[in-house]
Amino acid sequence: MRHESTEQIRYGSVSGTEGVEVLEARHLRLTFDRHFHDTYAFGIVLAGVERCRIGAHVNFFEPGVVPLFNPGDVHDGGPATADGWSYRMVYLEHGVVAGLLDDLGGGQPAFPADSRSDEPARRRVRAVFDAIDCGSPLGVQESLRLALETLFDVRVPKHADSRLMPRLVRVRERLEAECCGPLRLRDLCGEVGVSPSALLRSFENAFGLSPHRYQQSRRMAIARRLIAAGVPLAAVAAECGYADQSHLNRWFRRVYGVTPGRFRRQLAEVRAR
Q1: 192-202 in b/e burial notation, b at 16+ Cβ within 10 A?
Q2: What residues does each domain of the chain span?
Q3: Structure pTM?
């Protein structure tokens, strides 16, 4: 019988995004002492079951469950079975949350439950980790904003898209001109005087993609031309604003269905024939 690898736990920061830390844990069998965080925290259980007491309430977090912790929530954590559990978490300082949600008002937000297990919550949280793994600062901030709206269960103000259209065009023009740079959600909002909520929803309604996805599509178009021209892949990644070649590979495969290296080889084969 094959045994799983030994437990692993890894902490890290998010490049280009201050006040955000992440945790990835695999096959954990250890038990955490009772403690609290001075940050907001949420994540998703990937495998196994965690037993977690928050206050006086005991939770059993199964795969797909989104654990939620407000600052100061006293809790522990440990395996509910001998197999342990795997999960990912993101920790947000107060300033990050306030900056992403400052257009909603209403004082300090709080998660209304210890966890969520519905598909909208899972989808939003997976999008956060996807952006952290292979996105840009704009993608991380965009996904965090949408996740927090869902997890805090806030009412999002509605906006008239038609009146915003001239300003949305200005955002699109900036994305076109600076797609390979470190754009941030707050930069785009401040330039056109709209809230994150108005920008994200109205931009996608107008152009069919969120600002981050639009940025990535423009990057991919540039990357495709550079790869076809024979530019080294590491140089393509740097030119297009990716942290490394693996990030370029992930996005290129999403858009074109093959890796950059395979795409280049296929072009070479066609030219040879």
Answers
A1: bebbbbbbbbb
A2: 8-151, 161-208, 223-272
A3: 0.85
